[in-house]
Amino acid sequence: MSEDLEFAFALVLSGASIGLMYSLIALGFVLVYKATDAINFAQGEFVMLAGMIVVTALGAEAPLIAAIVVVLLAMIGFGFGLEKVVLRPLLGRPVVAVIMATIGVAAVLRGWGPLVLGIETRSLPLPIGDEPISIGPATLPPIQVVGAAVAILFFIAFNWFFKKSRMGVAMRAVADNQQVAQAMGINVERYFAIAWAMAGIVSALGGVVWGAMLGVDVQLALVGLKVFPVVILGGLDSIGGALVGGLIIGIVESLAAGYLAPYVGGGTKDFAPYVLMILVLMIRPYGIFGRRQIERV
Amino acid sequence: MFHRESGVFKTTYSADMALYPLPIAKWTVAVLALVFVVIVPFFVHEYYLSILNLIFIAIVGALGLNILVGYTGQISIGHGAFMSVGAYTAANLAVKLGLPFWLTLPAGGLMAALIGVIVGMPSLRIKGLYLAIATLAGQLIIEWTINRVPAISGGAQSSIEVDRPTLFGFSFNTQGSLYFFLLFFAVIAIVATLNLVRSRIGRAFVAVRDQDIAAEIIGINIYRYKLLAFAISSFYAGVCGVLYTYYFGIANYEQFQLVVSIDYLAMIIIGGLGSVLGTILGAIFVTLLPIVIRIFMENVGGLFFTTAEMANVISGLRLGVFGGLIIFFLIVEPEGLNRLWRNIRSYFRVWPFSY
Question: For A216, which DSSP code?
Answer without folding.
Answer: B
